[in-house]
Amino acid sequence: MLIKKKSPLSDNDVTPRQHYDNSRALISASRRSFLTRSSTAMLAAGLAPSTLWAGDKIADYLASESALKSELTPYEYVTTYNNFYEFGTAKGDPVVRAHTLKTKPWSVSIEGEVEKPGVYDLEDILKRQQLEERIYRLRCVEAWSMVVPWIGFPLASLIKQLKPTSKAKYIEFTTLYDPEQMPGQRSGSLKWPYVEGLRMDEAMNPLSLMATGLYGEMMPKQNGAPLRLVVPWKYGFKSIKSIVKIRFSETMPATSWNQAASGEYGFYANVNPQVPHPRWSQRRERVIGASLFSPKRNTELFNGYADEVAYLYKGMNLKTFF
Ligand code: MTE
């Protein structure tokens, strides 16, 4: 498994899915590591004090994580109700079709405004990261949500090691392009390969996660194995799967959904109940796995992570920069 021995999570800590709800070991390991690194990693990254998380922000995050634990979406839903257009546009396509994806060996090309460009084996990248668990709500622009226990490492930690130059204002991610392995790329449902991006300060926020697994297991192919992004305060389409390229740039990347329909999908794509999409009001969300008769959930600004991320958008009109 991709979960390293050196990590605060040893293989013994990784809870078998059927015992998941009974275990506290994994969660406490993640809390310890989160608390330790939230300050040291960011200081080492040379972030300005205003972007550091103060102790109360860490406490906020831990409280929200703890509350979310009772809302975990069952594994069966997380791994069968998917958006991964490279394997088809129906929610049930990826789980039956993604077996054609070869996830080993896997390399990631690092390009652009960075001191350490190159093609890196994923195994080598992971040797230098500490994996931890993060329980996040995933809110799709299609007005549904799930709560997923991801395994991964902070994107900020990787960025710090790669040393972007002072010109790097954005970070762009690209999914594998190989229609043999990803038959959905033979259709014109999107312009391939799938591309997403973040502003550098968004990428450096401690919530931005590079995920390699979920529910204590390696990432299932349909969920974006072997390496995907998770940005919990943004609509799910920002959380790009099966990443093979990371490029640092001075200019805003052209992202897939924004190119497909710029009036519907903005670059920022922050979850916001006040900014409707032409087809989804965004005020409420259907909770995947809940009973058909359950009421919808009220969508929260920044998907409930406002305390941690609102500073990133100070002074910005969120209706204009949607
Ligand atoms: N990444 C790629 N490469 N291709 C995709 O079609 N779909 C996005 C995102 N990442 C997508 C992608 C969308 S719309 C969502 S909601 C999430 O993945 C879904 O992640 P999940 O299937 O793990 O729930």
Short description:
This protein is an alpha+beta fold and 322 residues long. Helix content is 22%, strand content 20%.
Describe it for me?
The structure is a single chain. The protein is α+β, with helices and mostly antiparallel strands and 322 residues long. It has a single domain, classed as Sulfite Oxidase, Chain A, domain 2. 22% of the residues lie in helices and 20% in strands. The protein has nine helices and twelve strands. Strands 3, 4, 7, 8, 9, 11 and 12 form a seven-stranded mixed β-sheet that branches. The chain has a five-stranded mixed β-sheet with strand order 2-1-10-5-6. Strand 1 and strand 2 form a beta hairpin. It is globular, with a radius of gyration of 18 Å. The termini are far apart. The protein binds ligand MTE. The site of ligand MTE has 17 residues, from strand 3.
Key words describing this protein structure:
322 residues, 9 helices, Sulfite Oxidase, Chain A, domain 2, single chain, binds ligand MTE, disordered N terminus, 5-stranded mixed β-sheet
Morphology call: globular
Tally of individual helices: 9
Q: Any idea how many domains?
A: 1
Helix content: 10-25%
Derived structural class:
alpha+beta
What would the CATH topology be? Sulfite Oxidase, Chain A, domain 2
Largest sheet: 7 strands, mixed
Average residue pLDDT? 87
* Poorly predicted regions: 1-16, 22-52
Distance between the termini: 38 Å
